[in-house]
Amino acid sequence: MTGVVLAAGAGTRMGRPKLLLPLSGRPLLAWVVGLVERLPLDQRLLVLGAEAETIVQTMFPPHPAPLPRRGEGERGRWRILLNEGWSEGMGSSLRRAAEEAEGGMLVFLGDMPWVPEEAARAVIARAGDRPVATAYRGQRGFPVYLPLVLRPALRSLRGDQGARDFLGGCQLVPWPDDGVIRDVDRVEDLHHA
């Protein structure tokens, strides 16, 4: 199974790049990266776009060599993927991850730092031939497990279309913590943490 963190957007609703903004003394993205590093996964992909080089330098210092191929390469336990079409939306990042992932994909969003580790492990425990996601009060959350059978459909994604259309029959894991649905869109979201 491959852990995928989608972190390519420019933070347009925030009005500025947000993934490196501080949250309890760490960059926002560091909380998600740390969670994924603690999970039993075969591969970890970080999909970047806007501010890719700055994010890599901040999240993975120091490194002896610059990233090859305009931001792509290995950094510790992570494979960094550059989504050159990041401005198209989330679908382009999912497509980019689907091109490189091994097995099913456990998908996280880089701006969701409050996803509990136990929730991610509950999704992993139910992973099989159909999608699995957490749900808070009936609202589907993250992470979302996308089985290998969906890979051809994910490779065809365009624009801001995410995997929503492929989640029919998704097994939902009820979760009591709203961290599975809460993201950071505005500065106030960081202050109300």
Key features?
193 residues, single chain, Spore Coat Polysaccharide Biosynthesis Protein SpsA, Chain A, eight-stranded mixed beta sheet, alpha/beta, globular
* Secondary-structure element series: EEEHEHHEEHEHEEHEH
The CATH superfamily is identified as Spore Coat Polysaccharide Biosynthesis Protein SpsA, Chain A
Count the E strands.
10
CATH architectural arrangement: Alpha-Beta Complex
Give the percentage of residues in beta strands: 15-25%
Given as residue ranges, the uncertain stretches (5+ residues, pLDDT < 50) are none
- The first-level CATH class name: Alpha Beta
Please, how many domains?
1
Specify Rg, calculated over alpha carbons: 16 Å
What is the overall pLDDT average? 87
Number of helices: 7
Largest sheet: 8 strands, mixed
Overall form: globular
Question: Biggest sheet, strands in spatial order?
Answer: 5-6-4-1-7-9-8-10
Measured as a percent range, the helix fraction is 25-40%
What is the CATH fold-level name?
A: Spore Coat Polysaccharide Biosynthesis Protein SpsA, Chain A
Classification by helices and strands: alpha/beta
What distance separates the N and C termini? Answer: 30 Å
